[in-house]
């Protein structure tokens, strides 16, 4: 069984005012979810928040770096370093993390539902 990550536990508690915060381990790190919506990654004990066209510029303007899953390649994902003030100011946390939750909701693909199979009439 994998030992619990103290930083992960801290983040789960820190973000709990936004809703039910859960995590899943992935590729040596963790994905963080708010009410089932992915909004952050934890990799090498660094927190990265989800970005999209509506909130990406905030991260860029602050000079926060994009998450690069392969440091030796110039490939990044739509996650950026979290600004440090989210740990010191609850309003900043709600603002930045809340926007990342919203970005996660905007990018969530609608779940496909199975259509009922057409039944052939008997006889």
Short description:
This protein is of the alpha+beta class and 123 residues long. 27% of the residues lie in helices and 22% in strands. The longest helix has 18 residues, at 90-107.
Q: What fraction of the residues are assigned to beta strands by DSSP?
A: 15-25%
The quaternary structure here is: single chain
Q: Mean of residue pLDDT? A: 86
- Assign the CATH topology: Yope Regulator, Chain: A
The neighbouring-strand order within the major sheet is: 1-2-3-4-5
Highest-level CATH class: Alpha Beta
Q: What shape does the CA trace take? A: globular
Give the biggest beta sheet.
5 strands, antiparallel
Helix content: 25-40%
E-strand count: 5
For this entry, give a set of tags:
single chain, 123 residues, alpha+beta, Yope Regulator, Chain: A, 5-stranded antiparallel β-sheet, 5 strands, globular
Description:
By secondary structure, the chain is α+β, with helices and mostly antiparallel strands. The chain has one domain (6-103): YgaC/TfoX-N like chaperone (Yope Regulator, Chain: A, 2-Layer Sandwich), CATH 3.30.1460.30. The chain has three helices and five strands. The chain has helices at residues 6-14, 56-61, 90-107; strands at 21-26, 29-34, 37-43, 46-50, 79-81. A five-stranded antiparallel sheet has the order 1-2-3-4-5. The longest helix has 18 residues, at 90-107. It is globular. The mean pLDDT is 86.
Write the layout of secondary structure elements.
Elements: H1 6-14, E1 21-26, E2 29-34, E3 37-43, E4 46-50, H2 56-61, E5 79-81, H3 90-107
Antiparallel strand pairs: 1-2, 2-3, 3-4, 4-5
